Amino acid sequence: MGTAGRTVRLALFAFGLALTARYYLWAAQAAPGRFPWGYDLGGYYNYLTRGFLSGRLSVPIDPAPELLAVADPWGPSVKDEHKMHDMAFYNGRYYLYHGVGPVALFFLPWRVAAGSDAPENFAAFVFCSVGLLCSSLLAMRLIRLANVEPGPVVALAVPVVLGLCGSAPYLFSRVKMYEVAIAAGYACVSAGFCFLARGLTSGRACPWLGAAGAMFGCAIACRPHLGLAGVFAMAAAAVRFGSPWRREAVALAAPLVATGLAVAAYNYARFGDPFEFGIRYLLTGPHQNRVRLSVDNLLPGAYYFLACAPELSGVFPWIHMRMCPPPGGAFPPGYVIEATTGALFLAPFFPAGFWLPRGAPGPARTVLAALLASAGAILLFHMATGWTTQRYLADFLPLLVLAALTLLCVRIGRARGWRRAALTGFTVILVAAGAVVNLALAVTGPYDDFLRNRPANYLRLAARFTPAGDFRPVRNPLVEVSFEARFPRLEDGTVEPLVTMGRGAYSYFLWAEHGGGRIRIRSYSEGSMAEAEIPREGPHAFELAFVPSAGEVSLRRNGAPLFNHAVRTLVTAKAQVDVGVNRIEPARAGERFSGALDRVRVRYEAR
Questions:
Q1: Per mean pLDDT, which range of 210-214, 311-315, 342-346 is the poorest?
Q2: Which of 29, 127, 188, 235 allows an S-S link to 183, with CB 3.0 to 4.6 Å?
Q3: Do 73 and 20 belong together in one domain?
Q4: Which domain holds residue 552?
Q5: What percentage of the chain reaches a pLDDT higher than 70?
Q6: Are residues 268 and 335 located together in one domain of the fold?
Q7: Binning pLDDT at 50, 70 and 90, where does residue 538 land?
Q8: C-alpha to C-alpha distance for 316 and 15, rounded to whole angstroms
């Protein structure tokens, strides 16, 4: 490739990076709004930064007297308003169990330079952009090490695919200390492998390997289990240089070990134990202040992290995470689960990462093997803990995507004729599918923060992709629903759906709960509730109406009013108005009404 070709390739590579980073910048501000500059902010990492600057390892927050007074502050007897959720409480002080790495790498330097706190969503943007840059440079280098010259299309595609299919977009949907730590770990591991690849192929290996060791050490300071990547990086250096005692291997290991010792000293200074990160003293929910690795957790962990399918909908953004039962139907004791979508749907091409081509040069194979081993070990750790949540995929999926994309580019570059066309088409389809899933899940996130915090912006975006029709969500439409219901005899406590509208934030749910031969009708939206009790025996002719001008849902039975429930905001499409079907709250009620529904009528008018 000549000078002009290299210039075009570099320009397209830079454009792909800039395009993806621009999306990150938008996504980081989509839910919370513009970055708040120049303030003392309430993020946990901001608290820790101010604690460090005041000469303490704890955060500068005085615990509530009610928390200090109880014998077991970590137990369920302490009310939520008296404690800082997911902080470690020890010897009368609050500490962060999240790694100190983000403070050392970003928050503390920013506070010293700017005199104010760095927004946590801006920190996540910076860390994810650094991770994207390093992983993109690494992919391009590995492709060249495999004796394939990446063309302009590959140069453009690599940063876009790595940026959209590695689960990073999801982190921006709700940025708190959890996502900041994960984003920082992603940046450190990506930089570590990028420097490792340079060190394994450079005439001046030691500086690059020293930088790699430092970044893998910083990854431990962000997310302790990411130290597994450093272990496999050291193994790669030992294999490449023939001995773990060669000066090149020592150059990698020394800063990694030094950083690990510094983290251990930090833990000892806080909790009197070099291996205690604060999990034991966490003020959190049941089963979450312990790390208990168990083989019983492996099967459900593998299912949720790899194969759990999303739920599809005709309404923007079309793809949602869902809660579904584990294989076998029962969770192991103490299993903690949130809605997830597996890696096979976020990056359906990632199994190609294990399709190593023959004849790949030693350095490329060594780095790819370290990437895959690191991803596998981190995944295995998450599977064994019994803690399953969507954001954890960003610990290992970027490594799998990096390996898979690299090897697909190598195989496409070596293929000819129809094989090349078929492999290219297959790759494009899988990559596009994965990108759509990532982008859709990034819109909703774990708690629908985009819609909840900025409904007008959300609905404008939805309107661009759904110009009109029954599948376009709108704010405060007129909805009238009438139906006749016959309730079956069911066990006390059984809950069945009657009417649902919308999904997630600003949705509405009307359900029936059986008890004592009577039916309790409950109306729920955004934390508020109204209820009424009726006999089980009919007739039951219900009329439900949401009138935007009144700001309430009214329910009548057999022509007589049951209640008026104040509902200020309802966001729903006509297609999301369901009678007798529960698509939005699987934990609250069954999927379908088991009795009989007749004369169902729905009137919907968008205003």
A1: 311-315
A2: 127
A3: yes
A4: 474-605
A5: 99
A6: yes
A7: confident
A8: 28
Nearest C-alpha neighbor of 383 from the set 478, 512, 293, 468: 293
CATH number for position 563: 2.60.120.200
- Note whether 516 and 565 are within 8 A (CB): no
Instruction: Please tell me whether residues 432 and 503 are part of one structural domain.
Output: no
Q: Give yes or no: residues 302 and 207 share one domain.
A: yes
Separation of alpha carbons 529 and 271, rounded Å: 44
What does the pLDDT read at residue 382? 97
Structure tokens at 548: 């935007």
pLDDT of residue 533: 95
Amino acid making up residue 285: G
Rounded CA-CA distance 200/362 in Å is 10
In this prediction, residues 359-387 reach a mean pLDDT of 91
Give domain status of residue 205, yes or no. yes
Pairwise CA distance, residues 312 & 77, whole Å: 40
Asked if the model's pLDDT at residue 450 lies above 80, the reply is yes
Question: Looking at the domain assignment, is residue 455 inside a domain?
Answer: no
Distance CA 296, CA 531 (A): 42
Q: How far is it, in rounded angstroms, from Cα 133 to Cα 176?
A: 23
Is 50 part of any domain?
yes
- Give the mean model confidence (pLDDT) for residues 400-426: 94
CA distances from 114 to 3, 40, 236 (A): 42, 11, 40
pLDDT of 467: 80
Q: CA–CA separation, 545 vs 603, rounded Å?
A: 9
pLDDT at residue 357 tops 70: no
pLDDT at 286 over 80: no
pLDDT at 544 exceeding the cut of 70: yes
Last residue of a domain, one of 444, 459, 488: 444
Burial of 41 from C-beta contacts in 10 A (0-12 / 13-18 / 19+): middle
The H or E element spanning position 251 is helix 247-271
In a domain, 453, yes or no: no
Cβ atoms of residues 519 and 485 within 8 Å: no
**87 with 160, same domain?**
yes
Same-domain pairing of 211 and 85: yes
> Distance between CA 577 and CA 374 in Å, rounded?
46
284-300 CB burial, b ≥16 within 10 A, e <16: beeeebeeeeeeebeeb
215 and 191 Cβ atoms separated by less than 8 Å: yes
From 478, 488, 444, 515, select the one nearest 580 (Cα to Cα).
488
Q: What is the DSSP string of 572-599?
A: E-GGG-EESB-SS-TTTS-SB--SEEEE
101-115, 347-361, 363-377, range with the lowest pLDDT: 347-361
Note whether 395 and 378 are within 8 A (CB): yes
Quick check: helix, strand or coil at residue 394? helix
- Among 400, 425, 444, the domain-final residue is 444
- Predicted confidence (pLDDT) per residue in 574-604, tens digit: 999 999 999 888 778 888 999 999 999 999 9
Read off the tokens for 3: 């000078």
- The 10s digit of each residue's pLDDT in 235-284 is 999 888 877 778 888 999 999 999 999 999 999 999 999 999 999 999 98
Same domain, 440 and 504: no
Nearest alpha-carbon partner for 146 in 365, 355, 373: 365
Beta bridge pairs of residue 510: 499, 523
